[in-house]
Amino acid sequence: xxxxxxxxxxxxxxxxxxxxxxxxxxxxxxxxxxxxxxxxxxxxxxxxxxxxxxxxxxxxxxxxxxxxxxxxxxxxxxxxxxxxxxxxxxxxxxxxxxxxxxxxxxxxxxxxxxxxxxxx
Length: 120
Prior knowledge:
By secondary structure, this protein is mainly α. The protein has helices at 15-47, 52-119. It has a domain at 27-104. Helix 1 (15-47) packs across helix 2 (52-119).
């Protein structure tokens, strides 16, 4: 079966694709919070400072998860949009440049053809 893509070359804009994307973001927050919480719990066990590092680890993990969420939801789309705008601008410049070159070539052919006809 052939996978369909939208005009930007990305996956189709289906509810299942959105569910997978948002589930991934939720798992990122949960896993980072849980892993940092466990690391803090382990440090507290070694130092005997329970619950200081457990709480600090949970907060740090949650902050890291939310930063990852912000990066994927806000920063990356802006960067992609800026890259697309730059590509469009370059394509427009190349198109305009190509038209200028064709016009110059046409003008040179007219000048060269007219001069060649007179001198012969």
